[in-house]
Amino acid sequence: MRCPKSAVTMRNEELLLSNGTANKMNGALDHSDQPDPDAIKMFVGQIPRSWSEKELKELFEPYGAVYQINVLRDRSQNPPQSKGCCFVTFYTRKAALEAQNALHNIKTLPGMHHPIQMKPADSEKSNAVEDRKLFIGMVSKKCNENDVRAMFSPFGQIEECRILRGPDGLSRGCAFVTFSTRAMAQNAIKAMHQSQTMEVLYHLPFLCFLCANDGE
């Protein structure tokens, strides 16, 4: 003979059911596993108000597996209506950056008058570019971007590598290297700043430090 459920047990079951229903109504596409530690939460604007998480997932998935999508909705309306923007988190940082490079200010969605706006959410600003971007001085003018990238890639993933060039297209002997995280940039500084030289011609070691802007 089964014992009748207590009032507390019945109440707990009701809460579990209501929470599950709320999550489904919210429309967020979640997974039980977690994204990479350095994954980026991206804010995406200029999306059709009629689009749900389903259409957005189809838009983003070509660039990598999507961990979570949340459409921002106006809760003052019944039912809540999309504000035409969302947050998306990919499982990997690489996928988020590839999506941004392909979509931001490039792709215009049906019914929209302006291209997609895609950038790291405010919560990601602690990983600002200026904290990860290095100025590299005393670079051989014979080197190209691939040479510089090869020298600094042992310290972590490089998002951008650019040699500064004059109007004639020739190298100025310096470059900018942007890493995925501040920790990677700091490791590069510790290993390379005034500790390694590129060729006998210079007789001077690298100058390697964080920069706030391009300084051009």
From TrEMBL:
Record-linked PANTHER family: RNA BINDING PROTEIN
Per UniProt, the keywords (alphabetical) are: Repeat, RNA-binding
Instruction: Please give the PROSITE patterns that the UniProt record associates with this protein.
Output: RRM (PS50102)
RRM domain sequence ranges: 40-123, 132-205
**SUPFAM superfamilies given for it?**
RNA-binding domain, RBD
Family according to the record: Belongs to the CELF/BRUNOL family.
Q: Which GO terms describe its molecular function?
A: RNA binding
Protein's UniProt name: CUGBP Elav-like family member 2
- Give the organism, scientific name: Rousettus aegyptiacus (Egyptian fruit bat)
Which Pfam families does this one have? RRM_1
The record's annotation in InterPro entries points to: CELF1/2_RRM1, Nucleotide-bd_a/b_plait_sf, RBD_domain_sf, RRM_dom
